[in-house]
Amino acid sequence: MQSAEWPVFLLMCVTMSLTPGPNMMYLTSRALCQGRGAAILSLWGVATGFLIHLTVAASGLAAVLRATPAAYNLIRYAGVAYLAWLAWKALRPGGSALQTSRLPDATPRQLFFMGFMTNALNPQAAFLYLSIFSQFIHPERGGVLGQSLVLGAVQISISFVCNAAIIFAAGALGRTVAEKPWGLKIQRWVMGSVLGALAVRLALVAPR
Length: 208
Known about the structure:
Order of helices and strands: HHHHHHHHH
Low-confidence stretches: none
Shape: globular
Number of helices: 9
């Protein structure tokens, strides 16, 4: 990528990691119910699930880009629509918020497996790689598979760090969610605004 694209990509990765979804809900619930150590074990499973999505999507993107540029642009527009949809989910009245649930204790093997399955069976993760990552890939600058793997490694690292921070702050985060509704409101508006801005920015990039 060009140097100007990296800040946008990194912002997208951080925003997506901090947007409430199945991974965050599960990891926060696990931290509150069984402790930080258990949640970190599950986080390793989540990261492994990302590797599955990345490998499948990277191979698929390479095939699509070899077949036709028109298909590439369709994927690109789908990514813009996906970001806009996430922004609307956050900004709409009663939009997405962090909701935890009571989870029974599990063994280390079960913790890893449940984290893995939570992510591996999440269609949003697959769509993230297939549609949004494609907008930062430049076939004319080298192999699509290699570029996809580099971007995926960066995204997985950012996601791991962000989710680990959420796990270690889970106690305070849980109290904020339970006792201070304004905290949820701020979170929704910040996430929604950033996601909306990213959708507009990517929509204005010239089609290939």
